[in-house]
Amino acid sequence: MEIANNITQTTQNIPQKLLQKSCEAQENLKQQLKKLGLATLGAFSLYQEQAGEKIKQFVLKGTEVEKNLNTWANGLWKKGYSETKQTINDVEKTLEISNLLSKMNIPTKSDVEALAQKVEALNSKIDEIITATKNETTETTEITTTEEIIATSASSQA
């Protein structure tokens, strides 16, 4: 009977041991979940702090870059304005000089170039006429010479 009592006590202890192990496992899981939750909260809090610092750094850097860009853009605008103003002044001076030359009847460069082209065209025509005249003179001389030969030979035959 002793064996039966031992078996009865052992079987009675099994559910209690299982219940105890189950409670311990639940407590352990609860503690692990609590740690995980705290770690998540800590990570989020740390991220917020670091992100806040990074955002401050980004804003400072952005402000610095904006200032540099504004300085560069203003310098570029001033340079462009100055060069444009100078170009306008140069054009106005050129127009004034052109008007003055026109009023004084002084030919411009383009007038002189156009005149040079006309003179060149006239020179070409003169050269053509001279060449043609020389050819006609040679033909006339040959004809006269031939006529003289015929006339001379006719007179000598008579």
Could you characterize what this model shows?
The chain is an all-alpha fold and 158 residues long. The mean pLDDT is 79. The chain has helices spanning 2-103, 109-157. The chain has a domain at 108-158. It contains 2 helices and no strands. Helix content is 96%, strand content 0%. Pfam families: Phasin (PF05597). InterPro entries: PhaF_PhaI (IPR008769).
Q: Hey, roughly how much beta strand do the residues contain?
A: under 5%
Fraction of residues in helices?
A: over 70%
Overall, the morphology is elongated
- What's the main sheet like? none
How many runs of DSSP E, i.e. beta strands?
0
Based on secondary structure, the structural category is: mainly alpha
Cα gyration radius (Å): 59 Å
Distance between the termini: 192 Å
Protein name: Phasin domain-containing protein
InterPro entries: PhaF_PhaI
Organism: Uabimicrobium amorphum
Helix and strand layout, with pairings?
Layout: H1 2-103, H2 109-157
Quick tags:
mainly alpha, 158 residues, elongated
Brief write-up:
The protein is an all-alpha fold and 158 residues long. The chain has helices at 2-103, 109-157.
